């Protein structure tokens, strides 16, 4: 592997090669919210199998085989299809941070190189951490999206001391349709600096959600079949910082 000056990460796998990166871009312009401390450094996601190297260590060491092994383990333990080729995998070693504030309640960040408008079947995983001064704040993925802030969304919501998740349709950063009502899960913790490993699987009409390797729920919907992926932050008042660490995506072609 080699890395460009911008931190773009190139895979070289024999006998094939793949270039994968997340060139984040800048979320929509927002007024600077009241100061929030940046999320505390995340502990490295531990390997999901005793025979695989921790993900961050494998990425930092440019160890393709260990990265593929980690991703395959995470999918296998969730009962999902594992990669058939390194060409199906895109990953990012840099942390992605999205901020929302009082004047811009919803902010979103395209994952430019990991997902195109023609992609529709994929599994995506990252460690999610939220810091917020808002009474209600949310993080999550917008997927099968044709424009920023629109598409399906896995919405992870924190209100006071309660963490909930839902699957919705969004239009311009606003919930247009609820596909699954918000519900709690023992594995989901969005309190300040808490970490949750969030895995979303999308294949055909099926959308499955996993937290820390544990199955949370399934939704079936046929309206959207393809589209890009973005990360978002939402704050109804005050401010919210959503941090996404150790991100990867596996495409099913």
Number of strands: 16
Mind telling me the CATH class?
Answer: Mainly Beta
Strand-residue fraction? over 45%
Q: Over all CA atoms, what is the radius of gyration?
A: 17 Å
At the fourth level of CATH, the homologous superfamily is Exo-inulinase, domain 1
Count of alpha and pi helical runs: 2
Describe the structure.
Strands 4, 5, 7, 12, 13, 14 and 16 form a seven-stranded antiparallel β-sheet that branches. This protein has a six-stranded antiparallel β-sheet with strand order 6-15-8-9-10-11, with no helix packed on it. It has a three-stranded antiparallel β-sheet with strand order 1-2-3, with no helix packed on it. The longest helix is centred in the N-terminal third of the chain and has 14 residues, at 64-77. It has helices at 55-60, 64-77, and strands at residues 2-3, 9-12, 17-20, 89-91, 96-100, 106-110, 122-132, 136-145, 151-159, 162-171, 174-183, 196-203, 206-211, 214-220, 228-235, 240-251. It is mainly beta and 253 residues long. The protein is globular. It has one domain: Exo-inulinase, domain 1 (Jelly Rolls, Sandwich). The protein starts with a strand and ends with a strand.
Protein traits:
single chain, 253 residues, seven-stranded antiparallel beta sheet, globular, disordered N terminus
């Amino acid at each position: 592997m080699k890395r460009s000056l911008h931190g773009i990460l190139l895979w070289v796998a024999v006998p094939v090669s793949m270039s994968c990166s997340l060139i984040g871009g800048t979320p929509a312009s927002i007024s600077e919210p009241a100061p929030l401390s940046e999320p505390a450094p995340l502990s490295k996601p531990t390997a999901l199998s005793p025979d695989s190297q921790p993900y961050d260590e494998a990425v930092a060491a440019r160890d393709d085989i260990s990265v593929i092994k980690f991703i395959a383990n995470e999918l296998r333990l969730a009962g999902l299809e594992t990669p058939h080729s390194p060409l199906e995998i895109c990953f990012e070693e840099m942390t992605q941070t999205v901020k929302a504030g009082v004047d811009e309640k919803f902010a979103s960040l395209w994952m430019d190189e990991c997902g195109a408008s023609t992609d529709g079947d994929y599994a995506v995983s990252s460690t999610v951490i939220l810091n917020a001064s808002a009474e209600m704040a949310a993080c999550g993925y917008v997927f099968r999206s044709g424009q920023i802030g629109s598409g399906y969304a896995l919405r992870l919501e924190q209100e006071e001391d309660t963490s909930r998740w839902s699957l919705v349709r969004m239009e311009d950063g606003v919930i247009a349709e609820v596909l699954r009502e918000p519900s709690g899960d023992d594995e989901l913790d969005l309190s300040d600096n808490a970490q949750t490993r969030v895995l979303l699987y999308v294949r055909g009409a099926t959308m499955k959600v996993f937290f820390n390797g544990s199955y949370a729920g399934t939704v079936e919907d046929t309206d959207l079949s393809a589209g890009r992926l973005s990360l978002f932050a939402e704050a109804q008042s005050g401010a919210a910082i959503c941090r996404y660490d150790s991100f990867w995506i596996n495409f099913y072609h």
